[in-house]
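Readers outside the structure-tokenisation community will struggle with the description of the input data as it stands. For illustration, here is how one protein appears when written out as sequence plus structure tokens:
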Amino acid sequence: MSAICAQFSEELVESYSLGQLVCEECARFEEHLLICADCQRRLSESDEYVAATKAAALSFARKPNARAAR
């Protein structure tokens, strides 16, 4: 990871994936994403993780409770 990428923590990348960054942070990170393949990769991995977590939560919420069926 380059020195400039060190200012973007994993928490910030995840917050971006979740749409939780304030405008100023979001704009600064998006500008950086235009030129940094490493951060693009990190964001892609975070997006995949967030999507998988949301899918699992939806799947769990839709399953009937096995105990209630007894």
